[in-house]
Every structure is written in structure tokens, then in C-alpha cells.
């Protein structure tokens, strides 16, 4: 299978897999709806419990490679890949919500403490580590789609520095040595991470070089975005977006990656060095505000701390093996710091100890000061062959650098962790370190950003609009689309253009996003948009575009039809007759695609102004969905119904129907779908064989090859995320 379009690979999935994917989306939308809607029904701690449980479920899907029950009945490799992708995107959506809404109460950049973000507090370090490994997934479409969503969240500042650190894994992709990398990596992975990565899949030199190039371009765009905000001084809490502050997260993340098992293994350290330099290069070489002293102090601060994630296990005398693993994790962190500092000194020429806008700080979620690490900056934990020689300088610089790096030529033996009560001198030294080291308690994003590509297009169109775009010109464009869509398409044959209707509608959709006020008058609705919608037939993309256009226009055209104000209080005039019942019946209850259901609910949410009327319609939809049966066996529209429930949760439904939605999630989604595997091992093997014979691995195409069970599970994951998101 050579095509990696997600829409194509999705069609290869079974109905079971598709249903599971939609179930994941439903859960996320449900959670998302709970957080963004203003009518809070559940106490805040219950929100956190639900969010925590959902994140645990999504992390389990990742850690088991998409086979939730671990009985090899979770579907084909393609279906499991789509489930992993749905779970990863669900985690990103949940995390992005609170990263925006959590605002620091203290705008002082020198403050030692900041208010933690709710989601990042609920999200465990293990969940963060598992999420990062999706960037190393063997399926190309999983890596590509995850990277696109990650980049989108970072560019909009919906995701913070924890997630920017994930881009450092771009250093693992090396086209010249991919085969050797796969062999080494496979031999070192635990069973859990083998399930995540499914190595032996689609890695090849050419693909990884292109993917690494894309990763690098995304990284540079994100750094530029954050630096622009810092220059504008429009952000109160600079620590939350300062790209130079990402290194503590990078060091901690790499220490837990599956390709880094031994702290003194040279081949593993080479991979870590590549990852470090991948993200550090634009920070130290292409940064006018680069400060050597800032990076030096950051790495020194980390080395006098211990890993907080494993600290409690390390202190437990009943588990000596766990203690040893926790100590190994600390050594891996210290080796990462030595490597990073060595890279700074060996690849740069600027060692000026100048001031930096913020002081070095560490996230308290991952690091804590320890007396046992008080003298770590006098040691080098790297093996001899990985150590860096100090740069040759003269005068004052040489004296300063000599003090910094004099321990590098020596590699003292690593002492065992100190046990028992620390001495009085150690306690005093530890107290001094606590006063010097700034440990921040969370990461908050103050300002929600925008899509820069979209904004450029919007600005260009706004400049063109007064001259080129008018109502009459819009009607002419509609007429061309109508000729292609509803008539014999004579214009298409004359112009020699295929599928001009779709292209014209895409242009109209773009115009409706920027200039919704241009869409006024009866003719646009009664002659074009509504006939296009009802006569779209099997042209699903046409109906999806029309629904999005109507959503963009919303109720702005309500008074343009010459109706009295009393007739358009709740809904626009063009939807006053039987439009809403027909739309609900055809594109919600009997939707041909999941996107039709998604866009139809968004359209209803946009055009119905009265909240009570909107929730009355949503309530009727929920009742009819429950009556049709929420299972693959009883409902032919099960997948689209999962999408509908998730979108209703996002659009305020959770506040009005909390018990109903929660019951559906727990009974039908988690227990009746995600935790239930319907296919036999023989059926899975037969599907695997048919997958190998296909040449297309495009995610959009291969999704359609999934079984209905797999599709339903994917939609179920989305539903949960949407529910939580709402």
C-alpha cells in the first residue's frame, strides 16, 4: 500500500473501526463541550475526573498500538493506525482547550510561580511521553496528520512549550541511516513502545528526509511566531511562549523516549545529540537574542534537580528495581544536559554572559531540587568518546569558560544515590539552590493566536474586495456553478474544465468566510444555495460545502429577505419554512457521511439564534438517535449519529443534556463499542491480506477500507473528545 492520504485509507477500514473512531471523537467533543460552554452543570472536580479518565483511555489506545483489549482482535494494522491517530488528535484537542483558557494571574516575568493550566495538570507525564511517540509511528499518514494538527495548535498558541518540545524528535529521522536506526531502535524498545511504533513498517530514507524537512520548517515557523509576539510585548507571561524556555521539556522528554534506554550507550547518545541539535540549532545560531548564560544556567539548574516523575518511586525502599530505574532516568537527564551544554560550546562562537528577558526556570511538574544532586555540575556523566573539549579562548573569556568546562576532560565515576538524612552542610547548600533556581508550576498561554496563512489570504481578499467583489459578480459566479451542477454542464465542455462546480463552490466558501455580508437577497438562497443543497444527491462534497457556506453566513442575512422583524427573531428568513426539518432529516439523522452530520449541526448552531429553540431541536435529534439504536447492528447511520452527538455536546448540548450524554458515553461508547471487539482472528487476517494487495495508503482513502466497527470506534473516540472539549 503506497498511498498515505488519510481520507483514502479511512475508507479501507471496517464499519466497526470507523464507528470506534467516531466514538473517540464523540468523547473528546463531549469533554470539550463541558469546558467551553458557559452553563456549568457539574462541579469542577467532576470535570477533572472525567477528563483524567478520558485521557487515560486515549493513552491506553496509544500504548497498546490501537488494540485496546490486547487480544490481537483490535482490527487490521490499518484500522489500529487510524485508532492511534484518533486518540492522539483527541489528546491534542483536549490539551489545546485549557492551554488557551488558563490565564496567568501574574504578568511579572521574574515571578517564580505561575498558575498551572488545568489540562496540563490533569495530563500525566506518561500520557505526554506516549503522545510524543506518535511522531515516530510507522504509518506515514499517522505521522503526517499528527504533525499537521500539532503544528496548527502550536501556531495558534493553543499548545504550549511542552508540545513544542515534541518537534525535537525530528532529529531521529535520518535518511542515510534509516535501516540501521530501525534495527537499533527495535532492539531497545519495551513491549509497550513496540506496540506504539509497530516498527518494521513504512520507514524509508526518502520519506524520512522529506518528513524531517517538513518538521524543520514547522519548527522555524513556530519559533518566528513566538519571537514576533515577544517583540510586540503583547504577552504578559513571556515564560509561557519564550521558545528558549523549551529546553527543560526537551531534556525530560528525551530521557523517556524508547530509543534512550542506557545513559552511557554511545549509539543511543548519538540519537539524543541529533534530537537536541535539531531544536537547538535555530535557538542558538539563528537568534539575535541568544544568550549563552541563559542556556548554561538552564542546564546547570536541571543537573542539581532530580526527575519528579520517578522521585516517589526512588524514595521507596521496598522496590529496589524501581529505585535503580529512577536513578537511571536521572542519569539520562544529566547526560542530556551535558550533551546540550557541549553542543552550545562546540557549535557556537558567542559566549557573552549577557542578560535575557526572563530568568531560567524549570517546570515543577517534571523537576525538583535535591540535595543528592548538589555537586552534579562538577561532574560529566557522558562517556569519554561523547565528551566535548572546551573551546580555546584567551583573556577573560578563557578564564570564564575554563571555570565552566574544567570538568569535561575528566569523567568521574558516578556515585550511587545518597541515602539517609542529608548533612547540615548539604541542607544549607540545598536551601541556597532553592533560592537560586526558579521552578515554574505550569505553562499558560495568554493570547490566542491566529492562522497566519489564513490571515494573509484574508488581508489580500479584503484589499481586493472593494474593487473586484460585489453582489452582481457573486451572482455571476453562482450562475456558472449552477450550470455545471444542475444543468447539462455545457459551460464545462466549452471551457474544458472538469468539476468546475466543486471549484466554484470552494471559492464561494472562501468568500463566505471573509465577506458573509455579501450574501444577501432572495436569489442567492432560493435560486442557488438551497437548490444546490437539496439536489446534491451523491455529490457529498457539494452538500458539505453548501452546509459550511450557510454556517459562515449564519443569521447575518436574516433581514435581507424583506421579512418583518417578528418573522426572523429566531432564524433567518430563508430557513423559516421547512428548511430546518429537511436539513435535520437528510443531513443529520440520515447523513450519508460523517462530515455531513458535523457540518449540519454547525449550521443549525449558527442559524438558530434562540438558545431554547436550538436546544429543543437538539433534544429531538438525541431522542430520535436513541430510538434508532446506538449500535452497528441496529442502526445503518450509527457512525454519523456518533458525530452528531459529539457536535451537539460542543454546541452547548452538554449543559442542557448532561445526564443523557454521559449515559450514552459510558454505556454505548466505552462499554458497548471501544471495549468490544467484534471481528474474529480469521476475519482480521483476511482483511490484512487484502490491505497488503492495495497500493494506496493515503489516510483519507484507506480510512474507507476500514471495517464499520473500526470506523465506529474512531468516531467514538472523537465523540468523547468533543464531549470533554465542550
Would you kindly provide a written description of the structure presented here, covering whatever features stand out?
With 726 residues, the protein is mainly alpha-helical. Among the domains are: 283-418, no CATH class; 470-514 and 522-556 and 571-608. It has 32 helices and six strands. It has a two-stranded parallel ribbon with strand order 1-6. Helix 24 (540-553) runs parallel beside helix 26 (594-607). It is globular.
Radius of gyration from CA coordinates: 28 Å
Residue stretches low in confidence (pLDDT < 50, at least 5 long) are 99-117, 187-204, 394-420, 440-450, 558-568
**Which percent range fits the helix content?**
55-70%
Placed side by side, the strands forming the largest sheet appear as 1-6
The coarse silhouette is: globular
Largest sheet: 2 strands, parallel
The number of E-state strands comes to 6
Q: What share of the residues does DSSP label as strand, in percent? A: under 5%
Arithmetic mean of pLDDT: 75
For the termini, the CA-CA separation is 37 Å
Structural class: mainly alpha
**Helical run tally:** 32
Amino acid at each position: 500500500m503506497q498511498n498515505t492520504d488519510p481520507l483514502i485509507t479511512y475508507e479501507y477500514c471496517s464499519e466497526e473501526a470507523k464507528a470506534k473512531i467516531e466514538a473517540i471523537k464523540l468523547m473528546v467533543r463531549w469533554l470539550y463541550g463541558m469546558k467551553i460552554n458557559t452553563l456549568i452543570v457539574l462541579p469542577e472536580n467532576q470535570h477533572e475526573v472525567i477528563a483524567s479518565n478520558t485521557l487515560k483511555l486515549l493513552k491506553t489506545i496509544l500504548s497498546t498500538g490501537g488494540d485496546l483489549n490486547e487480544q490481537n482482535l483490535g482490527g487490521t494494522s490499518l484500522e489500529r493506525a487510524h485508532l492511534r491517530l484518533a486518540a492522539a488528535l483527541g489528546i491534542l484537542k483536549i490539551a489545546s482547550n485549557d492551554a488557551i483558557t488558563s490565564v496567568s494571574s501574574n504578568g511579572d516575568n521574574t515571578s517564580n510561580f505561575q498558575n498551572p493550566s488545568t489540562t496540563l495538570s490533569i495530563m500525566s507525564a506518561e500520557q505526554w511521553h506516549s503522545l510524543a511517540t506518535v511522531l515516530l509511528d510507522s504509518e506515514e499518514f499517522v505521522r503526517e496528520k499528527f504533525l499537521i494538527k500539532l503544528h496548527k495548535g502550536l501556531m495558534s498558541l493553543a499548545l504550549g512549550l511542552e508540545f513544542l518540545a515534541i518537534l525535537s524528535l525530528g532529529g531521529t529521522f535520518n535518511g542515510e541511516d534509516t535501516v540501521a536506526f530501525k534495527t537499533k531502535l527495535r532492539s531497545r524498545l519495551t513491549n509497550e513502545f513496540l506496540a506504539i511504533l509497530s516498527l518494521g513498517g513504512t520507514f524509508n530514507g526518502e520519506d524520512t528526509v522529506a518528513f524531517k524537512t517538513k518538521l524543520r520548517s514547522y519548527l522555524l515557523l513556530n519559533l518566528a511566531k513566538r519571537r514576533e509576539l515577544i517583540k510586540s510585548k503583547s504577552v504578559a507571561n513571556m515564560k509561557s511562549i519564550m521558545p528558549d524556555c523549551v529546553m527543560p521539556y526537551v531534556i525530560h522528554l528525551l530521557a523517556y523516549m524508547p530509543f534512550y534506554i542506557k545513559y552511557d550507550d554511545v549509539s543511543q547518545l548519538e540519537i539524543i545529540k541529533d534530537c537536541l541539535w535539531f531544536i537547538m540549532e535555530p535557538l542558538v545560531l539563528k537568534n539575535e537574542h541568544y544568550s549563552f548564560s541563559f542556556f548554561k544556567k538552564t542546564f546547570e539548574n536541571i543537573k542539581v534537580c532530580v526527575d519528579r516523575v520517578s522521585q516517589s518511586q526512588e524514595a521507596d525502599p521496598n522496590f529496589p528495581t524501581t529505585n535503580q530505574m529512577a536513578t537511571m532516568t536521572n542519569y539520562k537527564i544529566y547526560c542530556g544536559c551535558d550533551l546540550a551544554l557541549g553542543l552550545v560550546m562546540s557549535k557556537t562562537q558567542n559566549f557573552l554572559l549577557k542578560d535575557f528577558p526572563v530568568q531560567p526556570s524549570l517546570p515543577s511538574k517534571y523537576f525538583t531540587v535535591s540535595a543528592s544532586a548538589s555537586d552534579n555540575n562538577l561532574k560529566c556523566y557522558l562517556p569519554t568518546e561523547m565528551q566535548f573539549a572546551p573551546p580555546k579562548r584567551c583573556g577573560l573569556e578563557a578564564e570564564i569558560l575554563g571555570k565552566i568546562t574544567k570538568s569535561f576532560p575528566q569523567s568521574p565515576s558516578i556515585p550511587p544515590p545518597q541515602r539517609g538524612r542529608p548533612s547540615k552542610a548539604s541542607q544549607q547548600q540545598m536551601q541556597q539552590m532553592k533560592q537560586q533556581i526558579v521552578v515554574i508550576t505550569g505553562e499558560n498561554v495568554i493570547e490566542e493566536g491566529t492562522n497566519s496563512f489564513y490571515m494573509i489570504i484574508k488581508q489580500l481578499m479584503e484589499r481586493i474586495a472593494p474593487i473586484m467583489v460585489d453582489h452582481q459578480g457573486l451572482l455571476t459566479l453562482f450562475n456558472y456553478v449552477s450550470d455545471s451542477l444542475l444543468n447539462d454542464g455545457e459551460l464545462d465542455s466549452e471551457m474544458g474544465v472538469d468539476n468546475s462546480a466543486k471549484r466554484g463552490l470552494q471559492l464561494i466558501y472562501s468568500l463566505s468566510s471573509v465577506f458573509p455580508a455579501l450574501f444577501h437577497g432572495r436569489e442567492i438562497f432560493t435560486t442557488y444555495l438551497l437548490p444546490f443543497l437539496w439536489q446534491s444527491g451523491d455529490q457529498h462534497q457539494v452538500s458539505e460545502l453548501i452546509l459550511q457556506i450557510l454556517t459562515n453566513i449564519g443569521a447575518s442575512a436574516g433581514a435581507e429577505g424583506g421579512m418583518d422583524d417578528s418573522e426572523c427573531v429566531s432564524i433567518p428568513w430563508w430557513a423559516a419554512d421547512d428548511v430546518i426539518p429537511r436539513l435535520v432529516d437528510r443531513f443529520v439523522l440520515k447523513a450519508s457521511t460523517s462530515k455531513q452530520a458535523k457540518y449540519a449541526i454547525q449550521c443549525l448552531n449558527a442559524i438558530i439564534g434562540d438558545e431554547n429553540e436550538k436546544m429543543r431541536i437538539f433534544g429531538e435529534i438525541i431522542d430520535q438517535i436513541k430510538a434508532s439504536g446506538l449500535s452497528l447492528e441496529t442502526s445503518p447511520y450509527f457512525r454519523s449519529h456518533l458525530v452528531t452527538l459529539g457536535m451537539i455536546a460542543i454546541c452547548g448540548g452538554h449543559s442542557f443534556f448532561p445526564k443523557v450524554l454521559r449515559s450514552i458515553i459510558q454505556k454505548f461508547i466505552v462499554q458497548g463499542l471501544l471495549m468490544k471487539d467484534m471481528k474474529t482472528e480469521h476475519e482480521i487476517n483476511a482483511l490484512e491480506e487484502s490491505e497488503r494487495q492495495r497500493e494506496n495508503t493515503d489516510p483519507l482513502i484507506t480510512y474507507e477500507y476500514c471495517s464499520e466497527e473500526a470506523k465506529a470506534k474512531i468516531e467514538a473516540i472523537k465523540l468523547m473528545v468533543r464531549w470533554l472539549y465542550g
